């Protein structure tokens, strides 16, 4: 069965002039990707990479200079309000709520803002308050709730919209470990309900736990668009830890840096290295053999998504430097 | 009807906020009551006794209009600024009903609540001062409501400026003097002001309250001018707001404060 594409992001470009220096910044440069119905996509990138601008262009809050976003067949740039029937979002976490209203009043207000009556949404509001463990605090002002509870409430507000797509910008930002875990579990539950989700985040456990696929953006460009599992495999099979019996010579270190830029010499003679191709292992062996470096042990590393992300960003930087040179 | 739900939700929101910020609401009520009372009692003392009743009627009509206009106009701009500061503005823009409808329903709620309070206070102060003004609620309220439609239009223009610039307090200060001039200058003195927002409405209500005009005393031209003026300002206001919204979205200004 053909999987239905729900979101198409086509060649988005957005640039700004910096207020003080008047310098032109290309925040997003030809970003394209698609998201299938029911898929959870992680949108990653360092600070200033263009993630939030991309998310806001998907919701139609920022108009792109070029390109378009199509959601469920509706072009956001042509019919934004119709498109918004399919989207809800948590853009600024707990700041998306009215702090002088109670948890329940917030849910009721945002339901009304989408044209739904309190009566119509009563059952769903009750269910969400219970599921998100907010029932006991339903009549508390949001300003009196903990940050974690506020974040959960913001998620509940987005869910109440009953849209096909949910966009989450940094849903676990600023949460302690326990609440972060709790929010992750809730996101898992939401994903199991068949929603299509785009999560922009720095929180790698969120990506590893929830996302099936990830789009990594750096300097406004997509540098990777792969399934999380495939990215993990790619880096897992090419990352090694070598325990060396003697130190590398200066010449060896230079050659190593030139041929295998992602390497790190750790205490105890341990060398972690990422190889781009499987055959590179022979070149590495040759390089070590030249100075009779003793190899005591070779292990393939277990890698987490944070390292995958860092490797990709590093590769992109190296590539940029090579292009300049 | 989604729009009815939107109005209900936003009216309830305005009511809850009035309750949550109770000291502010109470001081607003006290201020308006004292002003009405002051006008009802004071004019008798300060003004010419022969002209006292006409003076009071004139002053109170002008004051109510000035107050409602200022409240309406500053509310819509203030809403945008507040929402941007809180971080909820972009969330409101995620509504498939459109932000202009949310703003309109906020205003409807705001005007309804404040209208009830102001009219209630007017009757309360008349009872306190035992000075009963010549009010004809049917015609006065109808003209007032039609006039407010035009004021809402001007409010949308201010909202549009707020979406782009966010801080418009200085402009609002100047505006209140312009509004006072429009509310207090009779149309007979400057007929050109018929083109300005709400001036025709104030003039007609003055005729009702001071000269005792009824429905039939006004010509079809009067009603046409009143309705056309209000509708025109509403349409121009919404058009201007949507244009500003487009500019803010293409410059990425919605989330900025």
From TrEMBL, chain A:
InterPro entries associated with the record: AAA+_ATPase, ABC_transporter-like_ATP-bd, ABC_transporter_ATP-binding, P-loop_NTPase
Domain ABC transporter: 7-244
PROSITE patterns for the chain: ABC_TRANSPORTER_2
Keyword ATP-binding tagged: yes
Assigned keywords, A-Z: ATP-binding, Nucleotide-binding, Transport
GO terms of molecular function: ATP binding; ATP hydrolysis activity
Pfam families the record matches: ABC_tran
Annotated family: Belongs to the ABC transporter superfamily.
Name of the protein: ABC transporter ATP-binding protein
Automatic annotation (TrEMBL), chain B:
InterPro entries: Nod_factor_ABC_transporter (IPR051784)
Transmembrane spans: 21-43, 63-82, 103-123, 143-165, 177-199, 223-242
UniProt keyword terms in alphabetical order: Membrane, Transmembrane, Transmembrane helix
Taxonomy, superkingdom: Bacteria
PANTHER family: NODULATION PROTEIN J
Name under which the protein is recorded: ABC transporter permease
Organism: Allobacillus saliphilus
Native organism taxonomy: Bacteria, Bacillati, Bacillota, Bacilli, Bacillales
């Amino acid at each position: 069965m053909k999987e239905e594409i729900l979101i198409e992001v086509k060649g988005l470009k957005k640039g700004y002039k910096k207020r003080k220096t008047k310098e032109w910044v290309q925040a997003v440069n030809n970003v394209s990707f698609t998201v299938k119905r029911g898929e959870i996509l992680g949108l990653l990138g360092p600070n200033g990479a263009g993630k939030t601008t991309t998310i806001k262009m998907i919701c139609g809050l920022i108009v792109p200079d070029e390109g378009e976003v199509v959601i469920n067949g509706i072009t956001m740039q042509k019919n934004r309000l119709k498109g918004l029937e399919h989207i809800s979002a948590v853009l600024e976490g707990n700041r998306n709520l009215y702090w002088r209203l109670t948890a329940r009043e917030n849910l009721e207000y945002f339901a009304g803002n989408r044209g739904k009556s309190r009566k119509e949404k009563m059952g769903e509001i009750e269910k969400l308050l219970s599921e998100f463990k907010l029932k006991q605090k339903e009549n508390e002002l949001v300003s009196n709730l903990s940050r974690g509870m506020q974040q959960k409430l913001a998620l509940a507000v987005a869910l109440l919209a009953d849209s096909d797509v949910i966009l989450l910008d940094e849903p676990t930002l600023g949460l302690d470990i326990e609440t972060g875990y709790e929010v992750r579990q809730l996101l898992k539950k939401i994903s199991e309900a068949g929603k299509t989700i785009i999560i922009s985040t720095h929180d790698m456990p969120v990506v590893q736990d929830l996302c099936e696929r990830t789009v990594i953006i750096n300097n406004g460009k997509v540098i990777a668009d792969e399934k999380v599992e495939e990215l993990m495999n790619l880096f897992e099979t090419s990352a090694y830890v070598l325990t060396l019996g003697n130190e590398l010579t200066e010449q060896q270190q230079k050659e190593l840096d030139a041929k295998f830029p992602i390497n790190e010499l750790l205490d105890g003679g341990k060398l972690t290295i990422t190889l781009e191709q499987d055959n590179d292992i022979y070149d590495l062996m040759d390089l070590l053999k030249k100075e009779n470096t003793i190899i005591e042990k070779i292990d393939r590393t277990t890698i987490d998504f944070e390292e995958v992300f860092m490797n990709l960003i590093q590769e992109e930087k190296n590539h940029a430097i090579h292009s300049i040179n | 009807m989604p729009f009815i739900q939107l109005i209900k939700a936003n009216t309830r929101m305005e009511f809850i906020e009035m309750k949550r910020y109770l000291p502010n609401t109470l001081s607003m009520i006290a201020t308006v009551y004292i002003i009405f009372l002051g006008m009802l009692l004071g004019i008798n003392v300060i003004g010419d006794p022969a002209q006292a009743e006409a003076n009071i009627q004139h002053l109170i009509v002008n004051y109510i209009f000035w107050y409602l206009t200022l409240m309406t106009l500053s509310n819509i701009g203030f809403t945008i600024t507040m929402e941007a500061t809180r971080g909820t503005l972009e969330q409101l823009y995620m509504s498939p009903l459109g932000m202009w409808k949310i703003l309109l329903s906020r205003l409807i709620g705001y005007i309804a609540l404040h209208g009830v309070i102001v009219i209630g206070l007017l009757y309360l102060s008349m009872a306190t001062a035992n000075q009963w003004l010549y009010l004809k609620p049917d015609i006065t309220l109808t003209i007032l409501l039609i006039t407010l439609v035009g004021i809402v239009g001007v409010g949308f223009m201010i909202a549009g400026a707020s979406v782009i610039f966010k801080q418009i307090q200085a402009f609002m200060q100047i505006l209140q003097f312009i509004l006072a001039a429009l509310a207090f200058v009779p149309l007979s003195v400057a007929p050109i002001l018929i083109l300005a927002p709400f001036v025709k409405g104030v003039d007609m209500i003055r005729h009702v309250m001071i000269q005792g005009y009824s429905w039939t005393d006004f010509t079809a031209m009067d009603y046409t001018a009143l309705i056309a003026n209000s509708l025109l300002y509403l349409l121009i206001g919404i058009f201007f707001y949507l244009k500003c919204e487009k500019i803010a979205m293409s410059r990425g200004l919605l989330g900025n404060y």
